[in-house]
Every structure is written in C-alpha cells, then in structure tokens.
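User: Hello, beginner here. Can you help me understand these amino acid letters and fold codes? It all follows right here:
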Amino acid sequence: MAKLRSRSGVTGGAVVSAGRSKSHRAPLAKAGALDNKRLSMSEATQLFTFLPYLLSITSNAVSGRIAQEYREQFGLSVPEWRVMAVLGDRGPQTQRVLTSLTLMDKVAVNRACKVLETRTLASRRPNEQDGRSHLLELTDIGQAMHGEIMPLAVAMERHLFRVLDTDEVAQLRSLLERVRDTAGDLDGPSTDSGNFGLL
C-alpha cells in the first residue's frame, strides 16, 4: 500500500507538473504573439518618422552635447544651467516660478538651486510680495559666470544649426513655439524631469 501511495504521489506530481507546464506555456505563447504584434505595429508606424520621437531624441542629442561643455568648462549640470539661464534672463524668481519656466519637477529645481547656492552662484532673499516664499537671484559671481556661458551657448547654437539657413532657423523656431504652445495644455505635476531639453 505504501508503495502504491508512493507511485500515486509521483504520478500525481507528474500530472500536476505537466499541467503547470502547459498552463505556463500558454500565457507565454500568447505574450509572444502580442509582442510580435506590437513589433509589427511599431514597424508599421515607422518610429523614426514619428515626430514626438524625433523631437525627443534630437533634444537629447543636442542637450547632451551642450551639457558636456557646461560640465567640462563650468562644472554645471543641465538643470543647474537651466535655472541659472532663467535667473540671468528674467531676474529673481521663486522656486515655484522656476519650476514652471524650466518645465522641471520640484525636486530637480530644488536640487539645482541648492547647488547654485552652495557654490555662491545664487542666493536667496525674502519675497516681499509673499512672506511664505523666497526669491532666488544670481550673485555677482553667478552673473559673471552667466556672462561667460551665454556667448558659448550662442556659438554652439550657431554651430548646431549651421545646416539651416537664416530663414529656416526662423521658421524652425516659429514652428517649435507653436508646438510648445499646443503642448502647454499637457503641462502638470507629471512633467518628466529626466528630459531637460536644449538648455
């Protein structure tokens, strides 16, 4: 009887095992079919002609090249330079406004501001219009660095867009502004901070 139970147990185990194997294979086969379907759909849409994708990879390529210069010459990350660029262009701002103007999330802006303050490139002062917040502004050192970087940024812009003539650059800028205005309706807390754009 014990022997019978043993054989029964082994046989039962084999059946269960086989049953599990089949039940696992079915979803995997189905998933594989879906993956193939997704690939076919991806190929059908021709990813490299999909404008949002082209905008994204172009922005990453350009910002990566510019970031290398900022890092090597001034020790700045792209978020730090973006905050500095806004402060240099628009003057003192609250972190909330900086978050809106740079399209970076609060954490990225806060981190960038702290680095700029630590390096005495920016400083805080009370916001007279709102006692709950502070204004961040460039220090004399920060303004001097901003003055050094801007000519470099302009020169790099010319170099990167040298393949376009003056009218094409103006048209590209106009088209990007129109697309940006349309996409503005999608801005919100979920804005991706990992993609820092051209600056």
